[in-house]
Amino acid sequence: MKPRNSVRDTLTGSRIDTGIEKAFKTIGIISLILPLSLLLILLIDTTVDGLPRLSWRFLTSFPSRFPDQAGIFSALVGSVYLIGLTALIAIPLGIGAAIYLEEYAKKNRITSFIEINISNLAGVPSIIYGLLGLGLFVRIMALGRSLIAGAITLSLMLLPMIIMAARESLKTVPQELREAACALGADRWTTIRKVVLPLGLPGILTGIILSLARAIGETAPLITIGALTYVAFLPDSLTSPFTALPIQIFNWVSRPQRGFHANAAAGILVLLIIMLLMNVLAMWLRMRLQKRII
Amino acid sequence: MLFVCAAVSVAVTAGIILTLLMETIGFFRSVSIKEFFADTQWTPLFVNKHYGIWALVSGTVLTSFFAMVTAIPLGLISAIYLSEYSPDRIRKVLKPSLEVLAGIPTVVYGYFALTFVTPLLQKFIPGLAGFNAVSPGIVMGIMITPIVASLSEDAIYSVPLSLREGALALGGSKLRSTFRVVLPTAFSGIAASFILGISRAVGETMIVTIAAGQQPRFTLDPRVPIETMTAYIVQVSLGDTPHGTIEYNTIFAVGMLLFMMTLVFNLIAHFMKRRFLRGVL
User: Fold this and answer.
1) Residues A185-237: tens digit of each pLDDT
2) B17, B89, B139, B140: least surrounded by Cβ within 10 Å?
3) How close are the terminal C-alpha atoms of chain B, in Å?
């Protein structure tokens, strides 16, 4: 067979192709709609199960043996403390690392090693971070099964995500602005503080809020380091034991009684609403800050 | 000072490896490597102790298999459609809404698999237990679909337009140019997205813990309760296992294997992606 013919045979088809193409487009739309409609079913199903249980008392009660008296107060407060602490640890570390890699680091072996390392860390399953937390913070550093051990574990898990988002954002700041600041006599640090960071801030903040929103739903690493599943008090110090919203949900899901499943669904609704609000906040911040700068 | 921030990430990796290694060595002091890889029963929490990792690995393989059977066709077809066929307007709306799927907490998916998908599947699959590998597998696949779709779409989208035009100029139809020219060109990028998806499925924890059961079993029957490597770690962590016991060591040994598996997958994906980018540019 001559090569020219084979190319033609490969590429030109019969009229059947038009039919196949139409069918393919339909399949394409279906495979996009299918997961999205499952998401919709998930939301509806959870709302139907959980909404009747959702009330002010549910938000302000401690867990209980009786499903209809149980609430998520300690879990909610625990989650808020946990995310606050995580943010305090992860944000400075993440932004610092991003500034170093984007603005200071020379292109050499150490830098590329750090970069590969960060992208690998992003792929490590969250439960492995839990084992790190259990072995290193709970055990060796003797922090116990405490709020602070949980927060450090979560912030290490978020670090690669935050660094990558912050770097992307710093990359979008035009090089000319840095040169202009230098030409006006600013040193590197002043340039970064007065020019680069303010311009990159919207993107950095968005990235941080989105990763924190992800952290608030994390369950596995917290279970591994030993967050409790039944806590009828509020954490009063960094080293006190704690629970968190996803842990409480998991605890209720894994019980056989139907009443607790309804509680789990209600807890899920609260969790999803918090995540939704954080996402809206991220979008709003980005739009607002972008407007102010341009 | 800033360098220290960047160096923290390296310290984290070192920390992970060292912690896992320390306890894993402790584990293999009392259990032989031969038993670990040759036995098919995993019962460290019983009186009659067996340490055959295959019982847990088979659980992980089963759930990951069903996840990929769901995620690969859905993700790849969505990617082709989004990149080659959908109008820009639709692409801009659909791509981010698909990402929402990847952002739902896994404990929520676990609840959904246990209370909705399993009862639904029980109507079609006779003999399906309340805990099984199919339902969490499929739900996990839905969660992974956006990852596969988004990465494959990036790969397909970055195939140079000139190749498509060339195929069309030779008289090819759009469908043929997509399947005979564009997809083969993007192959290693697409394969990288599959492998990253597998890595995700292997490391996923809450969905399988909630919906697949906690009975380590060396089986390929997806209808019965099983236990994955990740679910075992959770199960032991829920009890208050004191440091220094063999039970405590087991979760680090399992974690070490899990860490190495995902690391290998991630590295393969990394190199395939690099090869693809070099080929295209």
Assistant:
1) 888 888 888 888 888 888 898 889 989 998 999 999 999 887 776 676 777 77
2) B89
3) 37
Tokens read off for B1? 């000072």
**Domains of chain B: residue spans and CATH:** 2-280 (1.10.3720.10)
ipTM, two decimals? 0.90
Q: In this complex, do A100 and B10 lie within 8 Å of one another by their Cβ atoms?
A: no
> Does residue A270 lie within any of the structural domains?
yes
Q: Is residue B202 a contact partner of residue B64, using CB atoms and an 8 Å limit?
A: yes
Question: What residues in A contact B78, CB-CB < 8 Å?
Answer: 28, 31-32
Nearest CB to A31; choose among B20, B73, B203:
B73
A104·B2 Cβ contact <8 A: yes
- To the nearest whole Å, the CA of A144 is away from the closest chain B CA by 12
Q: What is the DSSP letter of A65?
A: S
| Chain B nearest C-alpha distance from A236 (Å) | 22
Tokens of A8: 């033609």
What SS3 state is found at B174?
A: helix
Nearest to B175 among A24, A124, A134 (CB): A24
Q: Please state the domain count of chain A.
A: 1
The answer as to whether A124 is a domain residue is yes
CATH number at residue A224: 1.10.3720.10
Tell me, yes or no, if the pTM score tops 0.80: yes
CB count in 10 Å sphere of residue B37:
13
Q: Please give the residue range of the domain that contains residue A97.
A: 68-293
Q: Is residue A44 part of a domain?
A: no
Q: What are the phi and psi torsion angles at A146 (to 5°)?
A: -115, 170
Inter-chain residue contact B111 with A265, CB threshold 8 Å: yes
